[in-house]
Amino acid sequence: MSNNNLIKGSLQTIILKLLEENERMYGYEITQRVKELTAGEIKITEGALYPALHKLEAEGLLSTEIQQVDNRVRKYYSLTKDGQKEVHSKMSELQSFVENLQRIINPGLKPDFSL
Amino acid sequence: MSNNNLIKGSLQTIILKLLEENERMYGYEITQRVKELTAGEIKITEGALYPALHKLEAEGLLSTEIQQVDNRVRKYYSLTKDGQKEVHSKMSELQSFVENLQRIINPGLKPDFSL
DNA sequence: ACTATATGCATAAGAAACTGATGTATGAAA
DNA sequence: TTTCATACATCAGTTTCTTATGCATATAGT
């Protein structure tokens, strides 16, 4: 996607949600999953992803587990209990944000949406 | 809203869209309109709004017109021709961003959405 | 008289979250 | 041997916000 600056603020939510669905993932896998799910339109850069993962870990929302695969090191991330709670919180924030966005942007809107 | 950091990147779009619907607005009016449309959940702060307006004006997307109302100065903003084009561009960016967000976040999603 | 609130503009320090470049390392393909 | 893919990471710089502050007018409350 040409202008990706809308990601700001939603990257953490994306990470947490993917980890809720996938149990455990490593960084590179996350970038590939997002690219795949969005047909290449959203590309999570490493410079954004890794600091975000480290921060979530520092906040106690993610735990890590290093693993060796084919002479390559992988750092797997999983949700902690706090992380599992936070997913729902972040998701409802995102949902209400999108609703509010629709209220601002859609002049005559029926209360219909679905994130 | 408690965590407003999702706004990042969408403020310009909001401003442009409101001006497309309202022909001309002044800064304070924009903050009030957004607050009203979102039942107080999104509050555009002045520290975010005014720099954003100035930037859009510097980019040639908005034009201004000072007006005196009740001994108070108002600075009205309107879309320029470039601004009118940019609204559509920004809106389709926003729409595809939300679509992509849904693809990432909603596991089994029907291609149904509406921003 | 004083204070708070509303209207209306604006700037500025600091924080947060990015981009884009760079670095290390392994391995396969061209 | 150069590029690409996999896999981690850091860092300078930029953008975009928050929070505080400032100026100015007017009304309402205490």
TrEMBL record, chains A, B:
Domain Transcription regulator PadR N-terminal positions: 15-88
Gene3D superfamilies attached to this UniProt entry: Winged helix-like DNA-binding domain superfamily/Winged helix DNA-binding domain (1.10.10.10)
InterPro entries for this protein: Metal_resp_DNA-bind_regulator, Tscrpt_reg_PadR_N, WH-like_DNA-bd_sf, WH_DNA-bd_sf
Listed Pfam families: PadR (PF03551)
Protein's name according to its UniProt entry: PadR family transcriptional regulator
